[in-house]
Specification:
By secondary structure, this protein is an all-alpha fold. It has a single domain, classed as DksA, coiled-coil domain (Four Helix Bundle (Hemerythrin (Met), subunit A)). 76% of the residues lie in helices and 0% in strands. The chain contains four helices and no strands. Helix 1 runs antiparallel to helix 2. It is elongated and about 60 Å long.
Length: 119
């Protein structure tokens, strides 16, 4: 990859990161507001609990994505961005353009996903 491609991907990562941080903050705030509000009946309480669990799960997924984004930004700063963590070959630019925080090439990702299913 050339310097302009890397810089473009870094900007995309930073924009995505900003959006996710706002989303995590909103989820946390909304979750706390829901938890602290008065519950009129048992059915409302069950619905509120379910909604809160879904929101917290979404927040956890967003936090995981933030970790991947932060790792990608750190790799850019270190000069080793775009290298598969498993086979250590370059990840194609087209893949990084699609998912700029991806850690694995397509082949290694397939193997990794299969291993996760079997575990």
């Amino acid at each position: 990859m050339n310097k302009e491609q890397i810089e473009s991907l870094k900007e995309k990562l930073l924009r995505t990161r900003q959006t996710l941080v706002q989303e995590v903050d909103n989820i946390q705030k909304h979750s706390n507001d829901e938890f602290e509000s008065e519950v009129p009946d048992v059915n409302d309480d069950a619905t509120r609990t379910y909604t809160r669990q879904v929101m917290l799960s979404r927040g956890e997924a967003d936090r995981h994505q933030l970790k991947l984004i932060d790792a990608a930004i750190a790799a850019i700063e270190a000069g080793d961005y775009g290298t598969c963590v498993d086979c250590e070959l370059d990840i194609p630019y087209e893949r990084l353009l699609s998912v700029p925080y991806v850690e694995r090439c397509v082949e290694c990702m397939g193997k990794w996903e299969q291993e996760q299913k079997e575990a």
